[in-house]
What does this fold into?
Amino acid sequence: MRRRSRQHRPAVDGAREAMAPRQRVRHLALPERAFGPVAGTALLLFMWAGVAHASGSGWVQTVGAVVAGLLLLGLVAPAFAAPGLTLVCERCPTDATAGSAVEIDVVGNRSMRCTPRSLRGTPLLLARRIPARLVIVPRRRGVISTVTVRVATAAPFGLLWWSRDQVLELTHPLYVAPQPLKRGAALRQTLTPEEGHGPPRPTLTGDLRGVRPYQHGDGRRRVHWNASAHTGDLMVRESENQTDDPIRMVVDLPRDLDAADRLAEEAMGEIVAQLSKGRRIVLETTEVTGRVVAPVAERLSAGRRLARSVASSDAR
It folds into this structure.
C-alpha cells in the first residue's frame, strides 16, 4: 500500500494541541483481556491431556498436540502481526464543531479493529485495503492535525486481541470551532470614530429618520449640514438602518482550558448573532504567531479564528 508522505504541519497546530491534555502513545503491542483466552486454553489443554493419558491411545495424543499447537498459534501470532498494522487517512473535512461527530475516511493495510484514543469515537472494524469511515468527536475547540488511534488484530483465529497505538496523520488540519453560546455581548466594542474622545457612536446610513443635536463622540459623517445651517447648532442625522461601522470584538482567552472554551463559545455566539443581522465584525485574537486583528465575514472564518486562538502572554 502506498503511504502518504508526511506533510508540513503548521506551527499553530502543535501549539493548540499542546494545550490539550496529552495521552500516552503505546507503540508496543500488548494483549487485551488476556486472562480469559489464556485461562480457557490452559484448562482445555489440561482436560485433553487427562483424557489422552487415561485412554492411552496414540491418535488422541496426536490430536491433542495439534490442537495445542493451534491454540498457542492463535494466542501468539497476533503479537507478530500487530506491529505491522498501518492505518492511513484518505480524506477528512476541513471544519467541524466541538461536540459534533466528524467522519474521516481511512484504509488499513490489513484487517484490523481501530479505536480512537486521543478523541472520543466509535470503534471500527476494517477489512484489508477497503476504505471505511472512522467517527471521532472532538470535545474541545482547536486545530487537529493528528489523531491517536489504537489498532488491534486477533488474526488468524480470533482467540486473543493484540493492540498498539498509532498516530494517524490527517490529510490536512481540522479546524474545530466552538459551539456558539449566548451572553457574549460583553465582548463587543465599537471601533473608535474619526474624532472625539468620548464613548464611540456608530455612523448610520440609510433612510433619514430625523436629526438631533450633536453629542460628544459623533463622527463627521453623521453631521447634517443643512439642518445645522438652519438651526445655527451642529445637528447630526438619525437613520433607519443599522450601523455601518464594524463591531470590534476582542477575545482574550485565559490559560484555563475550560474557561477558555467557555469564553470562545460566548464569542462565537455573539459573532453568529451579529452576522445574522448583517453587521460587520473585526475580531482581535491571540495566536501562536502573535496578535491578529482582521475582519470575519462569515461563521466559517470566525470558527477557524477561534479554533486557532490561544491564551495571551499576560493571561492568568
Confidence is low (pLDDT under 50) at residues 1-19, 189-206. The longest helix spans residues 58-81. The chain is about 30% helix and 30% strand.
